[in-house]
Design goal:
Layout lengths: L2 H15 L8 E5 L15 H6 L1 H7 L3 E4 L27 H13 L3 E6 L9 H8 L12 E2 L22 E5 L5 E6 L14 H16 L4 E4 L16 H8 L17 H12 L7 E4 L8 H4 L6 E3 L11 H18 L4 E3 L8 H4 L13 H5 L9 H8 L9 H17 L3 E5 L20 H5 L43 H4 L6 H15 L6 E2 L7 E6 L3 E6 L5 E2 L5 E4 L7 E2 L3 E5 L1
Parallel strand pairs: 1-2, 1-11, 2-3, 3-7, 7-8, 8-9, 10-11
Antiparallel strand pairs: 4-6, 5-6, 12-13, 13-14, 14-18, 15-17, 16-18
The chain binds 1-deoxynojirimycin.
């Protein structure tokens, strides 16, 4: 082996062993059923991921975050887990999983597994046992069962709504056939909530975290990290009273009966002890849709260590908004000792290349689910985007070119920021949201439970196009489980690989440079006198400058390292980011 190769390997193994590897990592989210299908059944699988490890390596990411891959009836895209310590047979086996971990690690890529602790699926053996057991039994106590109100218990225990629409309570039939108790489900009725006051539930999750950590999983993404802890003491408050108390900013004091209660951090303190038994310690990132003043608790080093910040994802493409969000989050991260997180797209929201091509005000365009998680939201945000999606866009109001141009500028800006960048499969191809999915093809419970109000999240979950031709554009040998539109092929990996200026090559260049240039987590703003320009320096003397405005501006002095669009006679054009040194 040459000296250069040995040096590269040793720095790679140092990076893999570094306990701080996560602080400025580029993390690529894989939604497994839509990534790559190795056996032609139309569903992406674990072997499909393993086969694409060279692609992931060529992208220059540090870690993969794998959305749920556990046995599941797919009532909510895998976030309804039947068995936390197994692989969905539709996706492969535990052996396939081990092979995937080995291949990722050999390529210098870490693996973050999605953990879903707020609820299981209604097919989980514990829930089946609860249904078969009498009221008041130990089996029922692992979930949240209550008697109904009304003369015969025919009314739900409270008037709360679930996130996917409809009541938060579902009535069961008792083993003797009589109408019975009600169980709580914040999400779909196939997702009963666990009772986190039950020690068996706590123990079982510790076992699960250990199971995957022992198998080489490097970190965890915690689904609905702000759920779990609940205060359901009677009388249960009315929905209207909760809404009135929340005001415009949501709950800020931890007194909501099931969102963001302080007790949830006791669970994470216990998990942290377990994570720290490993070398390097296992990492965790919280999915917590909480008031910004309460996010830091989730990111504390004594807790999960990092929390998603969805502020940029919810903002329009505007310089002052971006600047405030970046400043606030860097400050908050500094105060807790965590590093910040940045994200524009994931499996729950309309892809950012589409959002930025819609009229402003569509930052959360239409998906609605996350807006609904905020008990204060009466309407999904982004009404125009909703209309566009419900009408089966793309309609005139979507400017695909502008959307992609801004998405490229935003992503390049994100890669220049201190902290971790989370990207979602397909954004490196500049993929647009798919609106043209027919009703009978849709899968998302948000669509079915809330028909006509929310279009659901299928549009960002359509299987990736790998090649420009073929049954499912190289995704697999059979038709994809969600249909790919005809225009998908122009975004295919094959159409962009090695093509200068393609979005794929922009991501590769940016991620390679980011790895070479990243040093301390410092950022120094440069005053430009132009409110449309965001310009900052990073340690080591490199700089990022973004033009959010409509006209080209002069570039600062320096050598251009990469730009999200072609420069115009040495100037930085509208909706463009450039890095310089
Ligand atoms: C958040 C996940 O990202 C989303 O996809 C899921 O529907 C809910 N949590 C419920 O698990």
């Amino acid at each position: 082996m040459s000296t250069t190769a040995t040096m590269a390997n040793s720095s790679e193994s140092e990076r893999m062993a570094d306990p701080n590897w996560w602080r400025q990592a580029a993390v690529y989210q894989i939604y497994p059923r839509s990534f790559s299908d190795s056996n032609g059944d139309g569903i992406g699988d674990i072997k499909g991921i393993t086969a694409k490890v060279p692609y992931l390596k060529s992208l220059g990411i540090d870690a993969v975050w794998l959305s749920p891959f556990y046995p599941s009836a797919l009532a909510d895209g895998g976030y309804d887990v039947d068995d936390y310590r197994n692989v969905d047979p539709k996706l492969g086996t535990l052996e396939d999983f081990d092979e995937m971990v080995a291949a990722l690690h050999a390529a210098g890529i870490k693996l973050i597994a999605d953990i879903v602790p707020n609820h299981s699926s209604d097919r989980h053996e514990w829930f089946r046992e609860a249904l078969a057991s009498p009221k008041g039994s130990a089996a029922r106590d692992r979930y949240i069962f209550r008697d109904g109100k009304g003369e015969n218990g025919e009314l739900p225990p409270s008037d709360w709504d679930s996130v996917f629409g409809g009541p938060v309570w579902e009535r069961i039939t008792e083993p003797d056939g009589a109408p019975g108790q009600w169980y709580m489900h914040i999400f779909a009725k196939e997702q009963p909530d666990f009772n986190w006051d039950n020690p068996e539930v706590r123990q079982d999750f510790l076992k699960t975290l250990r199971f995957w950590s022992d198998r080489g999983v490097d970190g965890f993404r915690i689904d609905v990290a702000h759920g779990m802890a609940k205060d359901l003491s009677e009388p249960l408050p009315l929905k209207a009273d909760l809404e009135a108390k929340a005001g415009a900013d949501g709950f800020i004091d931890g007194s909501h009966p099931f969102w963001d209660r302080d007790e949830v951090h006791e669970v994470y303190a216990e998990w942290r002890k377990l994570f720290n038994e490993y070398n390097p310690p296992r990492t965790a990132v919280a999915e917590a849709w909480v008031h910004e003043t309460r996010r830091a608790r989730y990111a504390s080093p004594e807790g999960l260590g990092q929390a998603f910040n969805f502020d940029l994802l919810q903002a329009d493409f505007e310089a002052p908004k971006f600047k405030k969000i970046i400043m606030d989050n860097l400050l908050a991260a500094k105060e807790t000792g965590a590093s910040s997180t940045w994200v524009f797209s994931n499996h729950d929201v309309v892809r950012h290349a589409t959002r930025y091509g819609l009229p402003k005000g569509n930052a959360t365009a239409a998906q609605g689910t996350n807006a609904a998680q905020d008990v204060t939201a009466t309407e999904p945000k982004g009404q125009d985007g909703k209309a566009w999606l419900l009408a089966g866009g793309p309609a005139e109001e979507l400017d695909v070119e502008l959307g992609l141009r801004r998405a490229r500028a935003a992503s390049l800006l994100m890669f220049a920021l201190p902290g971790s960048a989370y990207l979602y499969q397909g954004e490196e191809l500049g993929l647009q949201e798919v609106a043209e999915i027919r009703e009978f093809e849709r899968q998302d419970p948000a669509f079915f439970r809330n028909k006509g109000v929310e279009i659901g999240r299928d549009g960002c979950r359509v299987p990736l196009p790998w090649s420009v031709e073929g049954t499912s554009l190289g995704f697999g040998d059979g038709p994809a489980h969600l249909p790919q539109p005809h225009w998908f092929s122009k975004y295919a990996v094959e159409a962009q690989d090695g093509i200068e200026g393609s979005t794929l090559e922009l991501y590769r260049t940016a991620l390679r440079l980011r790895r070479e240039l990243q040093a301390d987590e410092e950022l120094e703003w440069v005053e430009t006198g132009n409110p449309e320009i965001l310009h900052f320096r990073r340690p080591g003397g490199w700089q990022s400058v973004t033009n959010f405005g409509d006209t080209a501006v002069d570039l600062p002095a320096g050598t251009v390292l990469v730009s999200s669009a072609i420069l115009e006679e040495g100037k930085l054009p509208a909706n463009t980011t450039a890095w310089l040194r």
